[in-house]
Amino acid sequence: MTTADAGRAGSAALSALDAEIADCRACPRLVAWREEVAREKRAAYRDWTYWGRPVPGFGPADARLLVVGLAPAAHGGNRTGRMFTGDRSGDVLYAALHAVGLASQPTATHVGDGLEVFGVRLVAPVRCAPPANKPTPGERDTCRPFLERELALLGDARAVVVLGGWGWQALLPVLDAGWVVPRPRPAFGHGAHVTLEPRDDRLPLEVFGCYHVSQQNTFTGRLTPAMLEAVLSRAAGAAGLTQ
Fold first, then answer.
1. Rounded to an integer, what distance in angstroms lies between the CA atom of residue 60 and that of residue 120?
2. pTM (global) more than 0.90
3. Of 39, 91, 93, 152, which has the fewest beta carbons less than 10 angstroms from its beta carbon?
4. 80 φ, ψ to 5°?
5. Does 184 sit behind a cis peptide bond, omega within 30 degrees of 0 on the bond before it?
6. Predicted confidence (pLDDT) per residue in 136-178, tens digit
7. DSSP-derived pairing of the beta strands 205-210 and 193-198
8. Cβ atoms 204, 196 nearer than 8 A
9. Sequence-distant (≥ 6) Cβ neighbours of residue 147 within 8 angstroms
10. Three-state SS across the chain?
11. With b meaning 16 or more CB within 10 Å and e meaning fewer, what string describes 162-185?
């Protein structure tokens, strides 16, 4: 198989996984909530047809850098059908990705808005919008196989930026299947960095912690654009995406 053939096969496999994710109805509480939000809508979006389904990852199959969040926002990804798109958190994140050369534009408003990301894929441990932005441990564990399979398909991954402590705790058990996660597990913190050695013939994985791009963090100044860009730049360098 040529490199081009392998790339097409990888893209096809990832697309198939994305379609499977979008059809999932495994968690009754999340299904009920995401569909209720899609029916009732927010007044500002009354003319929208909400996605109202699980949200697949966004980015190319040969991504070398992953950005891992928590879950789609009720009126963001749950409305638009794309990770971190159409909400305040996404506004901050995509502006930073653009500032460090990983996105084609600083805004993300809807699918088809022309946005591209370069060498990076955005994912979440839970794919449905949860009530109060708080998935349960059971919902996290039910959704975990999707993240495990997605990571396995992203064979070029070299670095991960994890947004928030919840995502950090959800991701480390997933990574432990392919890389050696130290015991006790590394603690989350903004600017945290750990190198995970592979269990097979893969390369080491560089994992970076960053405060979540929630309004609570960005409005209070706990996370500034400069802080976010600094973490993304370090991770992009570790992934070989920048000189």
1. 7
2. yes
3. 39
4. -95, -20
5. yes
6. 999 999 999 999 999 999 989 999 999 999 999 999 999 999 9
7. antiparallel
8. yes
9. 123, 125, 170, 171, 174
10. CCHHHHHHHHHHHHHHHHHHHHCCCCCHHHHHHHHHHHHHCCHHHCCCCCCCCCCCCECCCCCCEEEECCCCCCCCHHHHCCCCCCCHHHHHHHHHHHHCCCECCCCCCCCCCCCCECCEEEECCCCCCCHHHCCCHHHHHHHHHHHHHHHHHCCCCCEEEEECHHHHHHHHHHHCCCEECCCCCCCCCCCCEEEEEECCCCCCEEEEEECCCCHHHHHHCCCCHHHHHHHHHHHHHHCCCCC
11. bbbbbbbebbbbbbeebbebeeee
| Burial class (CB within 10 angstroms; exposed 0-12, middle 13-18, buried 19+) of 241 | buried
The one-letter amino acid code at 11 reads S
Domains of the chain and any CATH numbers:
3-238 (3.40.470.10)
Please give the structure tokens belonging to residue 68: 């891992």
